[in-house]
Structures are given as structure tokens and as C-alpha cells.
Specification:
About 85% of the residues lie in helices and about 0% in strands. By secondary structure, it is mainly alpha-helical.
């Protein structure tokens, strides 16, 4: 590779700022992972379970309160270039109204809701407040990402997260409230509410408290269909563990949970890559630079293949690091979960983004819902027969279905030939072969590493060949 080409690649705006995006994702996940052993020691089992339930509910509720509008920020800014601040202000206003209505409804019908969620009225209202603030923070994250303001996004995200953990530890240590449960909740609530409120007011200051109908209709039209998609994804990632607990007990559920959590660490790289690719993709689509996009697609796919191959090398050791000897049985599951995460990357980064650009959010939701139903049905039928390990297989199968469905949607419904489907299917086949081979040598560290490095080298060589071809064809690496 020529020196000037290397300089162009290093100085590429997308890669330069995107690398900060990857760093932000890694640091965020790192803080979350470090906080787990801290709070398991500071809280009793009962308190930790209650806290986990609180955050699980808020992770679903913030999507409902905000109509999952954080999912269309980039598209909205692109469509309303001249009035993007008014558009974002209007989104804040319509989601605030929705939150107020849901809060009133929840309090009026509290006695009915209490039979479902089993929380007191005070906790319920705190959940709603925290959830809406989470939505505002998520919305701001997406906006900063699209604007290539990755440093600001990193400071914004990490400041909330670090304050969340630090305040919780301080509150629990000094016994600020009557229980460690509330110490943990208010430790997370305080910085989120402060930053979320300030962000909300800043949106309104810039957008002038906009209530324009076209912005509100736009948000409802394209964001609402994403709501069942996001909720279904959440169910898809949790259904296995719930069913394993019901069928085989908490011990098997714990082994699967550790394997699943360890396996999806690959999602850190996936999220980081998408942070680089998505803004580039939108700008290239706007400029009709389709040839450039095809090369970018091959770059990100081969790059993720290299990362996945390296994860395969040390996947059983990761189980030991996160769980210890009690969870070594999960070593038989982790590679299939890693493969499922790779498939998830393919359909999200390559196909989902195209549907998102063309505002086919309803089709996105339909595919995810059907995939979730398939996952649950497979587990109901086969898990009692093949055991809890089938959960990993059902995850791979359901993600495969989701990939093929998105492939068909892009090809037939949107009628866009932007993606080289044969290339994607070939890569998928190679990754399946690698998974089978690695699985056969799961107990041999040396053989696993050799195989993983060989596959990584092959993918790396392919990446260099394609890059040279891109330079020859005068592909523009600048925005």
C-alpha cells in the first residue's frame, strides 16, 4: 500500500472520528462490566435482584415513552437540514406529552398495573422519570454521532455513566437512604436526570419549543414502527434465558447467561464499526456514490470477520475470566453465540441501514417480530428435547432468518441492488465453516489460536486486495 494512500486512510474523517466512537463504546462497556462485581459485593442478593429488575423495566419503558425516536435522528436531520433544531425540539415535546399521558394513566390505573409489575407507586413514578431521561440521553447520543462529534459524545456518555457508578458507591457506603436498593437507584437517577433535563432545555432553546405538525407527524410515522422492532429485539435477547430458567432451573440459566453475555462482547466492535459506517453511508447515499458504498460494505464486513476470528481464538478463556470454574460448561455455547452476534452485525449494518435510509421502518419491525416468534417456537419445541444448549442454536437460526428476510426486503421491496448479496452469503458460509472447525478444537488452546490467526490473515489479505482495487477505481475515501 502506497504511503499517500495510508495517509489518506489515516486522515479519513470517518475513520479518525469513528475510532473515538469505538473507544467510547469500549469504555462504556468496560465501566459497565467493572461495575457488576462492585455492586454484587455491595448489595445483597435480594437487593441486587430488585435493582436488576428496576433497570430491566426502564430499558423497555424508555423506548415506549420516546416512541423509539432516537432510532430516526440521523434520517430526520437529513430530511430537515435547514430546520433540524425545530424538528428535534418537536420530537422532545411530543415525547414529553406522551410521557405525561402515560404517567397519568399509570397512576389512575395503578392497582391494575401493580398486579403485573409488583412495584409501589413511588417506585413506578421514579421508573417513568428515569426512563424518559434515558430516552433524552439516547437521543442526544445519536445526534452527536451523526454530527461526527464523537469527543463530545464520549464526554457526554462517560460523565453520566461514571457519575452513576461513583454516586451509587458513595450512597451505599455512607447509607444515604434507608436501603442500599434506593442508594443504588438514586445514584443512577441523579446524574441522568440532571444531564437529561439540561439536554431537554437546550433542545427547546435552540428549537424554540416547536410544535409544528409536520415534525410531529414525521416522528410518529417513522419512529413508531421501530418500537415493536426494538422491543422484539429485547425479547429476542432475553427469551432464551427466561425459558431456560423455567425448563432447567436457575443453575443452567446462569451458565447460559454468562456465556451469552461473554459472547455478545463482539457487539462492542459491531457497534463501533456501525458508528463509523452509518454517517458515511448516509452522506454517500445522498451523493449517489453507490460504488463507494459497495467498497465500504466489503471493508466493514471483512474487518468484522477479522475481529470475530480473533474472538474465536480466546472464547473459552473469556468464559473463565467472567464466570470462573463454575461456568466452564458455557464454553460449548459461546462460539455459536459469537456467530449469532456476527450475523446480527451483517443484517444491521448492511441491510437495516438501507431500510432505515428509505424509511421502511414498518418492514424492519415486521422482520424482527417474526424472528422473535420463530425463536420462541423453536425453544418451546426443541429445548425440552436437546437441553438448554439449544438456546444458542435457536439464536443463530432466528438471526439467520432475520438476515435473509432483510435481504429479501432490500432486494424485492425496496428494489435496491446496492448490496452484493453473493459476497455476504459467501462470507456467512466461511464464518459457519470456521465456527464448526473451532468448535471441534474447543479444548485445545494452541489449535484454536492457530486456526483463528489463519482465518484472520486470510480476511486481512482480502481486505488489502479490495482496498487496492478501490484505489485503482478512484473510490473516494473522504466525505
Amino acid at each position: 500500500m502506497k504511503l499517500e494512500n495510508i495517509k489518506k486512510l489515516v486522515n479519513n474523517k470517518a475513520i479518525k472520528f469513528g475510532s473515538i466512537g469505538i473507544l467510547t463504546t469500549v469504555l462504556t462497556r468496560a465501566v459497565n462490566l467493572i461495575s457488576i462485581p462492585i455492586f454484587t459485593r455491595l448489595l445483597t442478593t435480594s437487593e441486587y435482584g430488585s435493582v436488576d429488575f428496576f433497570f430491566s423495566v426502564t430499558n423497555m419503558l424508555y423506548m415506549i415513552l420516546g416512541f423509539a425516536a432516537y432510532g430516526i435522528v440521523e434520517r430526520g436531520i437529513l430530511d430537515f437540514k435547514e430546520n433540524s433544531e425545530q424538528y428535534m425540539s418537536a420530537t422532545m415535546n411530543i415525547t414529553l406529552i406522551n410521557t405525561v399521558i402515560i404517567t397519568l394513566f399509570a397512576n389512575v390505573f395503578y392497582h391494575l398495573l401493580n398486579r403485573i409489575v409488583f412495584v409501589d407507586r413511588c417506585t413506578m413514578n421514579i421508573m417513568i422519570l428515569y426512563s424518559y431521561m434515558l430516552f433524552i440521553v439516547s437521543y442526544k447520543n445519536m445526534e452527536l454521532n451523526y454530527q461526527f462529534q464523537y469527543k463530545r459524545n464520549m464526554y457526554y456518555t462517560l460523565s453520566i455513566l461514571i457519575a452513576n457508578v461513583a454516586l451509587s458507591v458513595i450512597f451505599i457506603t455512607v447509607g444515604f437512604f434507608d436501603s442500599a436498593y434506593w442508594d443504588r437507584i438514586f445514584g443512577a437517577l441523579s446524574p441522568t436526570v440532571i444531564v437529561g433535563t439540561a439536554t431537554f432545555l437546550l433542545y427547546q432553546k435552540k428549537g424554540g419549543w416547536s410544535f409544528k405538525k409536520k415534525y410531529i407527524v414525521y416522528t410518529l410515522k417513522y419512529a413508531l414502527p421501530l418500537l415493536p422492532h426494538n422491543l422484539s429485539l429485547l425479547l429476542l435477547s432475553n427469551a432464551d434465558r427466561i425459558m431456560i430458567k423455567n425448563y432447567f432451573g436457575t443453575s443452567c440459566a446462569a451458565i447460559y447467561a454468562v456465556a451469552y453475555t461473554t459472547g455478545i462482547l463482539l457487539a462492542v466492535a459491531s457497534e463501533g464499526v456501525n458508528k463509523i459506517y452509518l454517517p458515511v453511508f448516509f452522506r454517500k447515499m445522498t451523493a449517489n456514490a453507490y460504488r463507494d458504498i459497495r467498497y465500504y460494505q466489503m471493508f466493514v464486513v471483512l474487518g468484522m470477520c477479522m475481529v470475530t476470528s480473533l474472538v474465536f481464538c480466546i472464547s473459552p478463556e473469556l468464559i473463565y475470566i467472567f464466570g470462573g470454574n463454575k461456568y466452564t460448561e458455557g464454553q460449548q455455547l459461546i462460539n455459536w453465540i459469537v456467530l449469532a452476534t456476527f450475523i446480527n452485525f451483517l443484517y444491521t449494518t448492511i441491510y437495516y441501514n438501507i431500510e432505515y435510509y428509505y424509511k421502511k421502518t414498518m418492514l424492519i419491525a415486521v422482520g424482527t417480530i417474526i424472528s422473535t416468534i420463530i425463536n420462541i417456537m423453536l425453544n418451546v419445541v426443541f429445548m425440552p428435547i436437546y437441553g438448554y444448549r439449544f438456546g444458542a442454536a435457536s439464536t443463530v437460526i432466528s438471526y439467520m432468518f432475520l438476515l435473509f428476510m432483510h435481504m429479501i426486503i432490500v432486494k424485492k421491496t425496496i428494489k435496491n441492488s446496492l448490496v452484493q448479496d453473493c459476497f455476504i452469503l459467501f462470507i456467512l458460509g466461511i464464518m459457519f465453516v470456521e465456527t464448526w472447525i473451532i468448535q471441534g478444537f474447543i479444548l485445545s488452546f494452541t489449535v484454536r489460536v492457530i486456526i483463528g490467526i489463519l482465518f484472520t490473515a486470510v480476511f486481512g489479505i482480502c481486505l488489502l486486495i479490495i482496498y487496492k482495487r478501490a484505489v485503482t477505481n478512484l473510490v473516494k475515501f473522504t466525505l
